[in-house]
Amino acid sequence: MLPFYQVSRQQVKGLDERESINRRNPIYRFAGRKKYCNGDTMVTENRHHPQKMKETCRMDIIWKLTLGMAFLTVGCAKPTSGKIGERKDAPEPSEEKTARPVRPSEDQVVARSKSSRKEPTAADWNRQLQDNDAARRIQAAEALGKIDFKKTGAITGPARQENAAQDAVTALMAVLSDDRSYVRQSVVQALGRIGSEARGATSVLIEKSKDPSADVRRETVLALGRIEPESSQVLSTLGKCLRDPDSSVNKAATEVLVQIGKPAVPTLMAGMEDKDPQVCLRSMTALGDIGPAAEQAIPALSSAVERKESPIRKKAVESLGKIGPKAKTVTPALIEALKETDGDVRHYAAETLGALGSEAKSAMQALIETLNDRDTAVRMQAIRALVRIDPKAKEVVPALQKVQHDPERDVRQEVLVALGQCGKAAVGPLVESLKDLDSTILIYAAESLGRIGPEAKEAVPALLPLLKDDEEEVRKVAASALKKIDPTRKE
Description:
It is a single chain. Helix 9 (214-227) packs parallel to helix 11. The protein has helices spanning 53-76, 95-98, 106-116, 122-128, 134-146, 161-173, 181-194, 202-208, 214-227, 232-241, 247-260, 265-272, 277-290, 298-304, 310-323, 330-337, 343-356, 364-370, 376-389, 396-402, 409-419, 427-433, 439-452, 460-463, 472-485; strands at 27-30, 33-37, 42-44. The chain has a 3-stranded antiparallel β-sheet with strand order 1-2-3. It is mainly α. 56% of the residues lie in helices and 2% in strands. Among the domains are: 4-68, no CATH class; 408-491, Leucine-rich Repeat Variant (Alpha Horseshoe).
């Protein structure tokens, strides 16, 4: 018998027309049989019973579908409760017996551990200061420095409230001789934070101001300023620290003396007499920063204006100005400073006199003379000082007119600004400046006339031509000045 793939269509009459053989389709082997696929139907070869091919194919498909449905049913079935092998009709255990304990969160565990852990007391930190480990000694010193011994209830343990601070100070003083500088530094910081309660450690801290470590010396200066700042011994020690070679130490001493204020003035005045110019400068800077409370240092500062060293003269003038207008004795020293050969000193003197305001009227004549100074910056500062002291004084406008045509344009502009504060007496000089060919000068003069206001009505004819000036800025300023002089005027 021929194989199935070689039979004719007449020999497979039992097959449907859709299941005709397609010789181009691939051949699949399954269970020892050849299967032919034409895309729609699988046909199995059977040499002896070709008539049963269709039935065999259908049975194969039905078997596979049945098996797939069985697996699907098992997979979708709801699992039964209870353990394997347990009877289905057995009663379910109660919820109370099967409920598992809730595991606490991490935050709850940390909170419980903190609540159950005992916080160290001041006495515990005192004992830890004797530990062999330097890190633990530092930890204890820092902890003692953070305790507020003045606050009720801050200390727990056997020590009474009033003795707790003293016990801590005693324990800290015992560690001040530690071999390690960073341990000594932490102990000094702790004593400074304790404050006035650590007065018993003052003498020991004064000795530590000579410590080999600059960090320890700096912290000692700061601690002394917190513990007992107005003590004569402390002030003397701080005065010596102004001479410390380390800049961080002498800077800390200067800052502490400024914070102490008036009680520190004698110490700073003594520092002004030091042979080291840097110590003198630091002392004068501190006196100026103290301000009016350092009034008793004015004679010493006035004398310093006449010293040979230019930086010292500058700093003396600057500090005199910072002491304030209440110190009327400052003015004579500043007048003398206007005659200094150093331009910076003259500049500081003129600026300081202007800051004194009406208190420096006695310096008006000296400032008028300074308008002829060879230094441009000094001339400009003298102009500002005159109008700050008394702009309406009769001698101010004539003096300003003399420098109205100064060769330096900056000076001429400063004169025009000053004349704008002098009122009606300055209208004539300002109108004269409207004839200048420099547009910048025209703008300054017009602005000053507008600042004077209605008192400058006589300047209207001179301002009108500026409305047709080539420069747009000049036209705008002139229109604004005319509006201020005559608010009723129409455009």
